[in-house]
Amino acid sequence: MSSVATASPAPAPAAGAPSRVHARRPSTLTAYLWELRKLVSQKRTYLGLFLAAILPLIFVLVQNLHAHRGHDQGNIFASHITQSGLATPVLMLLFLSVFMLPLIAALVAGDIVAAEDGNGTLKTILTRSVDRGQVFVAKALAAMTYATLAVFLSAAVATVAGVASWGFNHVVTFSGTVVSAPEGLLLVFAANAVYLIPLLAVVAIGVLLSTTTRNSAAAVVGTIGITILLFIVAQIPGIESIKPYLLTEQYENWHGLLRTPTDWTPIWHSAWVCALYAVPALVAGYLVFLRRDVAGG
Amino acid sequence: MNDAPPVRARGLVKRYKEILAVDHIDLNVQVGDVYGFLGPNGAGKTTTLRMALGLIMPTEGTVELFGRDPLREGAHALEGVAGFVEAPRFYPYLSAQKNLELLAALDGNGAKERIEEVLELVELTPRAGHRVGGFSHGMRQRLGIAAALLRRPRLLMLDEPATGLDPAGMRDMRALIRRLADEGITVLLSSHQLPEVQELCDRVAIVDRGRVVYEGALSDLRRQGGAGYRLRSTDDARALEVLRTQHGIEHVIGGPPTPHTMHGLSFQAQESDVGALSLALARAGIGILALTPELATLEDLFFRLTESGEAPQNGDEAGKGAQAVDVGAVA
Question: Is residue A164 within 8 Å of residue A62, measured between CB atoms?
């Protein structure tokens, strides 16, 4: 800055104070798109996506090496794994939905506010022309987008790897009905979409913890801790009456899609149960974010 | 347009449980001011700036920027306002260019078109494509100024902008601030660099332990320091005795060297009494090595106000009757 004082002219300020007429302000969409660009620019973003992609590949590789015939593991898709590549994404959703995908979702959801608070960039963006509410909505949507991407990336990799190994063949549903390959493919991705309902509730909890704890590690661990706690609670004998209302019990809501006829009951049930978790979490996070002191960094 | 002042704070209080960080602070920054905000570490300066920018909520009191309350009006209240609190913070994994693009997107109003211009202004154009994570502290300070100027501010709030800069960088930062002020931007400058404040600012607020101990024109404050003289003699100890018995000589400070004093004495006196003093010293056989008038420096006054706990009257009242301020130490 040796000659900064003689550099080109500074942006000329208008004389006097700003008028009461509000300038055109950026939209929440703009803030959201920048949240995505920030995620794309961070290496840690790719850790979760890497896990989402590599696990189906490992699964298919192991199956190819050691299990050329199907296994009867009490699951129809497991027993038909070598008969149709479309069984692979269903099995992967079954395996990853309980812990791995919530973990991947929590990695970003728990970090998205707390990290910026910790490194001080939150105060940088909160002194621009976007309101706090816009920033919170943009961050929550970005975390949800990431979780969605992770789920569909995992499904896509599992589908491609499964089809490449065992073909694009018809598949048998939980009800034992045979569905064509194209319909099976549609059901696979519909099942993943339905699984997003509880997963986005996990994201909402992660964003709440990220906002309130101001600590990325605490928020990520806390989010996973809550899901593990609920999972353990579900195993306790004698609480069958509350079990249908536990978030972790909704992880299997997509099974209804893979029955003939389609069983919508668990899907609708999970939708409102998950809303009971997600909406209060998002509202609480929003309100905390609006009023909180931002002094980090 | 509105006639509201750039910054108007009334009774600002911030309490963290048992700690009173800010204790009923009033601030009045007028259009065109280069306003120095001074105080020791922990005095409450940064907390006050955070409240002014709407980053933290006051426990009590209000602050308005051009008549708008950041707490009630959110981002609307920050229109025409820019700056940074503590060090400017950026995304280390993004380049300087991308950081400014992000901030410009969050500013709107054509800020993106000014990126090249502000980068040029702070001489970061050659590093625009480099990640901020590799920037030195000084480069980040300059990027902080660039980010602030993207908003075409009418009020620039800077917290220690020269911290971490080398001497040339500090000089250039001062020149930049002066130039921005000359172009009509009101500047609120929080700084520990007292010479910087003395050079740049026309009005100051000095805070100590959460309270404003002085607010007003810097010239008034220095005038309150009184007409001072500095004496170096062949025998300071005996000269001190002479000064103390001499009519019209007041507030004599001196004696053994302390961290803030070296050799010599300082005192306040009317010019007419100084002649008599020199004769008295000569009669006592004390040689005068130097007898020079001195106006209290900001540093003198700052230490006096923040270390003695003695508060002068505020500048707005100073014209009604000067109050002697003990100049204090001899530098």
Answer: no
Output the pLDDT for position B263: 67
- Whether residue B23 is predicted with pLDDT greater than 90 in this model: the reply is yes
- Is some CB atom of chain A closer than 8 A to the CB atom of B185? yes
Q: Which of A19, A24, A295 sits opposite B56 (nearest CB)?
A: A295
pLDDT tens digits for range A192-208? 999 999 999 999 999 99
First to last CA, chain B: 47
- Residue type at position B193: Q
Out of A32-41, A60-69, A72-81, B271-280, least confident range = A72-81
Residue range A17-50, pLDDT digits in tens: 444 445 677 999 999 999 999 999 998 899 999 9
Measured CA distances, B108 to A139, A161, B102, B185 (Å): 19, 45, 10, 20
- Cα Rg of chain A, angstroms: 23
Interstrand relation of B34-38 and B203-208 (parallel, antiparallel or unpaired): parallel
CATH number belonging to domain B7-217: 3.40.50.300
Residue (of B241, B45, B9) closest to B160 by Cα position = B45
Of A5, A18, A291, the CB nearest to B179: A5
Average pLDDT over residues B216-228: 75
CATH class, domain B227-295, is: alpha beta
**Residue type at A209?**
L
Q: Across the strands, what pairs with B37?
A: B190, B205
Of the residues A2, A3, A4, A293, the best mutation for testing chain B's interface (the one with the most B CB atoms within 10 Å of its CB) is: A4
The CB-side HSE value for A273 (13 A sphere, CA atoms) comes to 20
Instruction: Choose among A4, A12, A124: nearest Cβ to B122.
Output: A4
Picking from A239, A237, A248, the residue whose alpha carbon sits closest to that of residue A270 is A248
Classify residue A12 by burial, with Cβ atoms within 10 Å: 0-12, 13-18, 19+.
Answer: exposed
Domain range summary for chain B, segments of one domain joined by + = 7-217, 227-295
Top pLDDT among B212 and B301 is at B212
- Comparing alpha-carbon positions, the chain B residue that sits nearest to A13 is B152
| Residue B3, Cβ density class (10 Å: 0-12 exposed, 13-18 middle, ≥19 buried) | exposed
User: Hey, what are B238's tokens?
Assistant: 């005996």
ipTM tops the 0.95 cut: no
What does the angle CA B275 – CA B279 – CA B280 come to, to the nearest 5 degrees? 115
